[in-house]
Amino acid sequence: MKLAAVAAVIAFLYALPAVASGQPYVLHIIALSCLYAIPAIGLNVMLGYTGLVSLGHMAFAGIGAYTAAVLMVDAKLSFWLALPIATITAGAAGFAVGSICLRFRTHYFMIVTLAFGLLLHQVMNNWDEVTRGAAGFPGIPRPAPLAIGDWSHSFGPLAGFYRLALTGLLAAFALQWAIVRSDFGKVLVAIRQDEKLAGFKGANTMLYKTTVFALGSAIAGFGGVLFVSFLRAASPDAFSLAESINMVLIVIIGGAGYLAGPLIGALVYIAVPEYLRAANELRLVLFGVLLVLITLFAPQGLAGLLQSGWKRVRR
Amino acid sequence: MPEGFLEQVINGLMMGSVYMLVALGMVLIYGVMHVLNFAHGVLFTVGAYVCHLLLTRVTGSYALAVVLSMGVLAVLGIALEHAVFRPLRGNLRSQVIASLGLILAIENTVVWIWGPNALQMRIPATQSIVALGELHFNLHLLVVIGVTFAVVAMLFLFLKTTKLGTAIRATSQSAEAALVVGIPVESVHRFTFALSTALAALGGALLGPLFLVFPTMGDEPLVKGLAAIILGGMGSVPGAVIGALVIGVAEALSTLYFPTDYRDSVAFMVIVLVLIARPQGLFGVRMRGED
Amino acid sequence: MIEVRGAAKRYGGVVALADCSMAIERPGIYGLIGPNGAGKTTLFDVITGATLPDAGRVRIEGRDVTGIAPHRLAALGVARSFQECRVFPQFTCLENLGFSLQMHRVGKTLRREQALRMLRLVNLESYADEPAASLSFGQRRLLEIVGTFIVQPRFLLLDEPASGVNPMLLETLTGFLRAMYQQRPGVFLIVEHNMQFIMELAQELIVMHQGAVLDRGAPEAIQASPRVIEAYLG
C-alpha cells in the first residue's frame, strides 16, 4: 500500500514538467530541493544514523564540484565520466580526512571537521590557477544530451535537468536505504547509541566510522557535481562553513536518523520560504529558532513527528 | 629580523588579546559545563553592535558603552543558559546542534535589524597615533591590549581568591565533588555563562572601532578562539590565554612570509596539527569519563 | 588460560593496581571479591583492553593481549558485562541479542530464533520487541548478561551482575548462570559485592586488596581466612 503511494508520487514528479509547463518556478524549486537533499542524505547517514556531528560536510560537496569542474572544463571530459570520478574523489577525501578526525571524541571531532572544512574552503578561495578563486568557476556545462535510437533527452532546458536531479536524488535515497537496512547499518546505529559497547561486542568501530564518513562524503560530492552543473558555475561560498551548518540544520529539522528526513528538511529549507516570500535573513532566523526548538522539544525532527502523528491517526 | 617583525608582533598581541577574550569565555563554559558553546562568536558580534547602539543613542562615553554592553550580554547569556543549555544538559550532541541554531538565529537577526553593511564605530579619544620607538600605532590598538590584559588579570585574581571563583574552579574539576561540598552548581553554571558572554561582548566592543562592525565579525574570532583552547588545552584557563596570544602572533608573523590570503589557515592548521600530535594541548587537563 | 602478571595502574594520585598477578588455569566459576577500591573493576578493564596498564602483561591462552583493542578480544571468545549495565537502549531486546550474534557472524535467519530462545530462559520473551530502555534495571541486567552468553564465550567477565537486581530476579540470574556453566563450562570471572550471591555461585574465590591479589581458595576457606577478614575490617 505504502509502496504504491510512493511509486505514484515519484511517477507524478517525473511527469510534472508536462503538467506544469507554464510554471518553471515550481520545477526550479523542486530541482533545487533535490540538489540540497543529496548532500543531506550523506550527512544523515553520518549524523543521523551514526551520530557523527561533522561541521565540514559541504567541503566534500565542494571537492566533488570542483573536481568535476576541472575535469569537464579543463580536461574536456564528458559529464558522465566526470560525475563518477568526482564522486569517488570526494569519497576518497572523506576516507582520508575521516581516518584523522574520527580518532577523536565528539568535541574534538566536531572541531577538526570544522577546521578541515575551513581549510578546504580557503583552498577553493585562493588556489586561483585551479579553482579560479573567490570569483568562482564559470562555464560548467550541463550534461551532453543522451540519445538512444529516436529518443533523446537534453539537459539544457530546466525540465531536462529537473529529471536528472530527481534521478540523482532517487539514487542517493536508494543507497541510504540499502545502508540503513543492512547489517552494516545496524552497526552504525549501535555505534550511535554506545560506541564503547559496540566495540566490546566485536565491532571495529574505527573502520565502520571511517567507511560511513567516506560514503557520506562521496554522496555529498555527487550532489556537488549536480549542483554546479545545474548552476553552470561553482563558487566557494556554496561550500563554506555557513553552508555546512545549514546542512546540519536540514538534517536535524528534517529528522535525523529517518530515511525521509533529508528530503523533508531540504524541501522545508528551500521551498517554504520561497512561498512565504520572506527576506533571506528572516528565513534563516526562523530556521535557527526552529533548530533550537526542535533540539529542545522534538529531537526526532519533522520526519519523526510525522511518523508518530501517522501512527496516532491509524489507531 | 625581517622588516616589520616587531610591528607584526604587536599587531599579533592585539588580535591575540581579542581571541583571548573569546577563548576564555569558551574555556570557562567548557570547564564548568563540559560543553563547547559554538555560539560564542555571534555573542561577540552582538556585543559590538550593542556597544555601537549604546554609543550612538544612549551615551557618548565609549567606556560606559563597553561596560553596559557587557552587562546586556551577561543577561542574554543567562537567558540562553536557562532556556537552551540547561534543559539539554548531559546531551552533548544536542547542545552543540542547539548552539548552531543560535548562531543562525542571532547572526541573521543582526542582519535583519541593522542590515548587512558594516557600521563605523568612531572613538575620537582613541584615534590618535602613538609612537613606540620607530613604530607608529593607533592608540586604540594599545588600548585593546591594555584593557584585555587588565581584565584577564582581574579574572585570574577572581578565580584564585574569591569564593565564587573557587566554586567555579571546583565545579570544573568535578561536578559531583562540588555538589557534595555544598556548592550551588546551578548558580555556578549561570554565573559562568554570564561571565563568558560578558567577556565575548568586551571583545566585540574593543574590536569594533578598529575594523568596523559587521554581522560576520565574530566568525573568525570563534575559530581562532577554538584553536587557542585546543593549543592551550581544553580545560586550561592559562592555556587559553597563552594559546590565544601564540595564535595571534603566529598569524601576524605569517604575513611576513606568506600571502595574507592564507593568514587564517594558521589557526586551522594549528587545530589539526595539535590534535594529531598532542591532543591534550600544552596544558591539557584530561577529564575522566568524558565521551 | 587467563594470566595477569605484574599489572600496575594509577589514575592521577590513586593507585588502582599495584603489582597485581593472577592466573586462572582451568574452567570454573570464580568470584573476584574485595573491599571497595581494591581494584577489581580496573583489573577487568585491563584484562578486556578497556585500559592500558602502566606496567604488566595480560595473557589469554598464551597470547599476549595487553592493551589489545576490545573488538579483537571479542573474536578471542571474551565477553564482558559492565558495572553500570550497558545495553543498546534504542534497540529492542531482540535487536540487542541479534547484534551480539551478528558480530559473531550468525546469519540473519538464525538470529531471531536463537535470541528468542535466550529470552525465554530468563522470562523476557514478552519484551522481545520492546526497546531495552523500557525495561526495569533488573531486566536490563538480565538482558545484558544473556547478551554475553549468547555468543558462547570461553571467557566470561561479569562486573557486579547482582547490583541493583531485586531478590526474585536474582534467583533467575543465579539459576541462569549455573545452567549456562553446566551447558558450556568456561572461565567465568565474576566481580561481586553481594556476598550471599557469590558464595552460592562461585567454586573458587579470589580476593583483592589494595590493588593486588591477597588470597584465593574455596569459599569456606576464604570466609575463615584471617588475612581476608582483616582486609575487610581494617
Offer a few descriptive terms:
heterotrimer, B: 291 residues, mainly alpha, two-stranded antiparallel ribbon, 11 helices, disordered C terminus, C: 234 residues, alpha/beta, Rossmann fold, 6-stranded mixed β-sheet, 4-stranded antiparallel β-sheet, 9 helices, 10 strands, 26% strand, globular
Q: Would you give an account of this structure?
A:
The complex is a heterotrimer of chains A (315), B (291) and C (234). With 315 residues, chain A is mainly alpha-helical. Chain A has helices at 2-19, 24-49, 57-74, 79-101, 106-126, 128-131, 158-181, 183-193, 195-200, 205-231, 241-255, 261-276, 280-297, 301-314, and strands at 137-138, 146-148, 151-153, 233-234. Chain A has a domain at 34-240. In chain A, the strands form two sheets. A two-stranded antiparallel ribbon of chain A has the order 1-4. In chain A, strands 2-3 form a two-stranded antiparallel ribbon. The longest helix of chain A is centred in the last third of the chain and has 27 residues, at 205-231. The mean pLDDT of chain A is 90. Chain B is mainly α and 291 residues long. Chain B has a domain at 17-129 and 138-218. Chain B contains eleven helices and two strands; from the N terminus they run H-H-H-H-E-E-H-H-H-H-H-H-H. In chain B, helix 9 (219-232) runs parallel beside helix 11. Chain B starts with a helix and ends in a 14-residue tail after the last helix. By secondary structure, chain C is α/β, with parallel strands linked by helices. In chain C, the strands form two sheets. Chain C has a six-stranded mixed beta sheet with strand order 6-7-8-3-9-10, with helices on both faces. In chain C, strands 2-1-4-5 form a four-stranded antiparallel beta sheet, covered by helices on one side. The longest helix of chain C has 17 residues, at 167-183. Chain C is globular and about 50 Å long. The model of chain C has no long low-confidence stretch (mean pLDDT 88). The chains are: A mainly alpha (315), B mainly alpha (291), C alpha/beta (234). The interface between A and B is large, with 43 and 42 residues.
